[in-house]
Amino acid sequence: MNDALRLKVCDLLHENAKLSPETIARMLGEKPDVIAKTIEELEQEKVILRYSAVVNWEKLPVNQVTAVIDVKVLPQREVGFDAIARKIYRFDEVKSVALMSGGYDLQVTVVGRDLREVSRFVSEKLATLENVTSTATHFLLKTYKSDGVIYDDTDGERRLMITP
What we know:
5 helices, two-stranded antiparallel ribbon
């Protein structure tokens, strides 16, 4: 398998999941059946986990709150942080869990209908888990850029002036 081709296909699909194998083949100078087979293999190998859109939820009439929670945990013998991370990511409210370096161990992103729902999740489900020693909850107020996409670029392409 051509690793360079796999990387290029992944990069293109990450930028735009709507690209067809035919379009990708034209962009890379490959045959569409080679690209289709590459994509199928990447999906089977769980390199490509799913296809999604970047959505600006602030422009839709939905009530939801996003919180990023810093979690300190006691790692467990022989499984480290993996076992507690598994427990956390199984909650429906949890959108992502990542092991971090620095002042806390796990970064947990949670979405709820309102502040109370997120607070209830933290106090009743997350903080009460065995090996969780502390949490710090940060509520997302506004998104300016996510996954390389600028959400509200009202200035267009205007750049800041550089002065000596």
